[in-house]
């Protein structure tokens, strides 16, 4: 019997319930036919059933099923529970306890304190309940952003690790050998104030966003647990403003040049409690959307804080909603992870009558920005220049349906693609094992494949947004730094001859790993170099018309929280102003929420018909599914996102 069950984090997983029979003949399949009669290619299971292992079952099923339909967990029972009328009592089937994905290596328990600490951290950030010391971090669904969370939590536990260590030592057994007890990088805990150089991504913003710059935000909406006290949330948010210096950044224009300053603490975050309990449930989302929209447009760049919050009371029988919105100039997706963890930590402390005591600050945004400016003048970085200048080939333009249309923000529309929990699990855990490719490389390959089919050109240019927090400096630690840190750099894929999805993924993976420092140097040379010729030559390069931003796994932050239930799905107004022009032609955003990968294709209806972008999105989805062995299907609702939460960004 196989069921889809929600685990403790709300993720849907396939669970198989197995009863072993004392028999030695070939394994039977539905209809009473032995497995070896069904297909000559499938192996026979002639091992005595009492010796049959979960790995045997899994390998057998992988011969017959696409990867995403192979159960994540196997629970062995003496007998299946039955109802009085003799049918399987599905409600009586037990939840898997402490189960882990069935990896190629057997589970090996931690042996030392360091291994036990690392196993617990890996379990927290990946959502896998039982982690063995020989399990590969990336085969468990880890990625570069989660690796930063591992490094941060290891530091709080007294272990010195870097993200580079995790990439080079991908099992706990290997990682424990390099994880020393160390003080690590000691950052100043003093209040940071004063001027801050603009970072490359902030230069990009002021060059690209020319209208209504005050309205370009990131926001989150969270369903809260029953009994959450809004007064405590307000106290915590005000504390965050003091602790995280980057939340107090503000911006002024002097003689046509934008300047950034870190203000001193003092101005509180506007926090309101909105009572919607008297409204019928059907009207509450509309009222919430209206109130959130007012907060979205209320930012003033030279008046910190660029942060607003509200608690919505939906009634005694419904979870409340905590809404927080910040201008994008001061926050990114990784920062939200830090902030949400801090809110949960502080709430537990206040609820227990303790003072707020958050983990120590890491390198300030101010110091990091100063180091980027200095590094931009280094000979090490100048050596990257020939690589970036090689991107001089004009990309084939994306075919337009409407040749004279204006690429306005108001014309932005979205085609959503959604992958099931089983498909998402396979993309996170099975594809990395099979192709040695990480999730962002898989998504990049599928977008390149779809765009190449659209344009007819096997060379595809894509601007890729990375998290930007690369370990460039030995004395800088960005694992708990709040601010807007991402990098944007061009990636040029040559898919000539890569005529299968697997070949396209391998080609993309290999080309992506040739990019120096994951692309962070491009923005520094483009915007921070003091050599005017360098800046001009990079600015003159042909621009890509496709941009990708993959946020990674976000909902692990609120999973099993004492104060948050999940990311909520009610509308919260536009994250960006409807005036002005969009910054690219096709903007693709991917993220994992509640165990499901969603990918949104943003386009302008003034340039393209929805059916055109839908075909591109379908090609993308078909390639992704082919990599996990799934067959395409067209049932009602396929490809549509469910009502899962979202971290909203301006398109």
Characterization of the model:
The longest helix is centred in the middle third of the chain and has 19 residues, at 333-351. It contains 19 helices and 19 strands. Mean pLDDT is 86; it is low at 24-50 and 630-643. The chain is of the alpha+beta class and 651 residues long.
Topology:
Layout: E1 2-6, E2 12-19, H1 35-38, H2 54-62, E3 73-77, H3 113-126, H4 144-156, E4 159-160, H5 163-168, H6 172-176, E5 180-181, E6 194-196, H7 200-208, E7 217-224, H8 230-243, E8 249-254, E9 257-262, E10 271-275, H9 284-296, E11 307-313, E12 321-327, H10 333-351, H11 365-375, H12 379-382, H13 385-389, E13 412-418, H14 421-435, H15 439-455, E14 459-466, E15 487-494, H16 501-512, H17 520-528, H18 532-539, E16 546-553, E17 564-567, E18 586-593, E19 596-604, H19 610-627
Q: Measure the end-to-end span.
A: 44 Å
Mean pLDDT: 86
Q: Kindly provide the radius of gyration, computed on alpha-carbon positions and rounded to a whole number of angstroms.
A: 26 Å
Helix % is 25-40%
According to DSSP, the number of beta strands is 19
- Spans of 5+ residues with little confidence (pLDDT < 50)? 24-50, 630-643
**Approximately what portion of the residues adopt beta-strand conformation?**
15-25%
What's the shape? globular
Note the main sheet: 6 strands, mixed
Structural class determined from secondary elements: alpha+beta
Strand order of the biggest β-sheet: 13-19-18-16-14-15
The number of helical elements comes to 19
